[in-house]
Amino acid sequence: MRRRNLLILVEKELIEASRNRLILGFGSVFFLLAAAMSLLGFLSPGATDVQLSRVGVSLLNLAILLVPLIGLVIGSQGFAGEFEDGTMELLLTQPVELRDICLGRVLGQWVAVAAALLAGFGASGLILVLVSADQQLLPFLVNLVISLILAFVFLTLGSVISLKAKNRMMALLGALGVWFLAVILYDATVTQLLMALSGFPIMLVLYGFLALNPADLLRVLAIRLSGVNLLFGPATEAMAALPGFKGPLLSLLTIVLWSFGGYVAMLRGLRHRIFPPARRRVKDAGGKSFQTIPDERSVN
Amino acid sequence: MLQIVEVRKSYGSLVAVRDVSLEIPSGEVWALCGPNGAGKTTLLKMMAGLIPPDEGSLNWGAYGPRGDVGVFKKSVHYVPQKVALYPNLTVGETLRFFAKLRDADNLQGVLERFALLDLQNRLLRTLSGGQKQRVAVAQAFLGGGEYLLLDEPTVNLDREQADGLKEALRGFADKGGTVIISTHIADDLVSGFVNHRVLMERGSVASVS
């Protein structure tokens, strides 16, 4: 029953997402930019060998910029919009659990964003394979997979913002603020902080900063895994310093924690928004406390 | 039988529902009447399980308060005052969504009863207020519910549509279901249609007739 309800909710989210102008716009822009990037790489003066892996990194940079933005914006509009419009009220009277509502929302939105990313990476990959059959696919695929993970993490974070905000507009502002901090400001801020913290064990501090920002973490992980020797900012140095698979494993573990933590925060946020803790329980005539109204417990 | 015992609900210093007690048997249509701000919507939302009372309890016979929440939600169907449906879904997609969640097998019958067959492929955002209201009410008839809670269900409906709704609600009650509606337009909806009328004033029950 539980899996069935989850699938029903994911299906509904997907149908809505397929008509969402924001997602359609993102998909079109990403597709066009990705295709243009590949073609320009091939047509640029002096270009004799267009490397799929290099274009993959360029696409990753594009994804690092756009995917957190779209993930945060789309995620932030979901719950805030449902509470504002009143559709959440109707949904809460249906036999579904809160965890299915949370997971169904993020998964449905993620599949839609993933389709846009696949179209962009796919177009780019196709162009490059047509130009030169001698390509290494693995680094390209690594960047694609990491972009997909990035989308999931930021959709989850966007949903958390959505549940904390009073309305759509506040949620949007919050989402844009987090994006600006994570994608634009973070590296520069970390560099300044590192200079100020020159007396501390620098690598440890770097790992700490890296773990605090999933966008940076995934970017560095992609660069490390794809084997393309391009360094971006001080955080990459920290990852490069770890021997073997230690760095990537640590990063993946951190991303799993980010995803799981985001999901738990979303579930708690939804539960608290619907049932403020102080009013969840009442007492019967005998003074025994019980839950008077139905909540997210068993629905089977 | 729905038993409401000494239920109270406050929003800050405002007491929205004040020590309300009612016993509503199955197979009847009840109307909560009263002016705006009388506490009708708050009471209905408590019945639907959307907000908890500060004090008192609501007992749904076999379903609550400690019963199976899934069974409760499949049995108690609610139509909110504000028509809130997914604007990017069609009428058919919306009703199929709710039908699947409730394991309902009467989708076709509901589409026919509420004259929604021709609107099946229209997006909700393109419908008029009355058409949206019909969809909102129709979703409550999906599945084997035993209680129907409707908050101001006729607000956007014309006379003919309101009469059609009354007929559907009466039919639901005649099959053993319980209907509870709230309305501030007492005479229009209530006359000759409901079994009992609860007049609410400032959060309290002023009379039951």
Automatic annotation (TrEMBL), chain A:
Per UniProt, the keywords (alphabetical) are:
Membrane, Transmembrane, Transmembrane helix
MF annotations from Gene Ontology? ABC-type transporter activity
Q: Does the keyword Transmembrane apply?
A: yes
A Pfam family this chain is assigned to: ABC2_membrane_2
* An example Gene Ontology CC term for this record: plasma membrane
Which regions span the lipid bilayer? 21-43, 55-74, 107-131, 137-157, 169-186, 192-210, 248-270
PANTHER family in the cross-refs: ABC TRANSPORTER PERMEASE (PTHR43471), ABC TRANSPORTER PERMEASE PROTEIN NOSY-RELATED (PTHR43471:SF1)
Entry protein name: ABC-2 family transporter protein
Automatic annotation (TrEMBL), chain B:
Among Pfam families, the record links this protein to:
ABC_tran (PF00005)
UniProt entry keywords in alphabetical sequence: ATP-binding, Cytochrome c-type biogenesis, Hydrolase, Nucleotide-binding, Transport
What Enzyme Commission number(s) appear in the record?
3.6.1.3
Tell me which domain of life the UniProt entry assigns to the organism this sequence originates from.
Answer: Bacteria
Q: InterPro entries in the record, alphabetically? A: AAA+_ATPase (IPR003593), ABC_transporter-like_ATP-bd (IPR003439), ABC_transporter-like_CS (IPR017871), ABC_Transporter_VariousFunc (IPR051782), ABC_transptr_haem_export_CcmA (IPR005895), P-loop_NTPase (IPR027417)
CDD domains hit by this protein: ABC_DR_subfamily_A (cd03230)
A single MF term (Gene Ontology): transmembrane transporter activity
Q: Where is the ABC transporter domain?
A: 2-208
Which GO terms are recorded in the biological process aspect for this UniProt protein? cytochrome complex assembly
List the SUPFAM superfamilies hit by this protein, alphabetically: P-loop containing nucleoside triphosphate hydrolases
The protein's matches in Gene3D superfamilies, at most eight in alphabetical order, are given as:
P-loop containing nucleotide triphosphate hydrolases
The UniProt record lists the keyword Protein biosynthesis? no
The yes or no answer to whether the keyword rRNA-binding is present is no
Q: Which PANTHER family match?
A: ABC TRANSPORTER ATP-BINDING PROTEIN ALBC-RELATED
Q: What is this protein called?
A: ABC transporter
Q: What is the protein's species of origin?
A: Acididesulfobacillus acetoxydans
State the taxonomy lineage. Answer: Bacteria, Bacillati, Bacillota, Clostridia, Eubacteriales
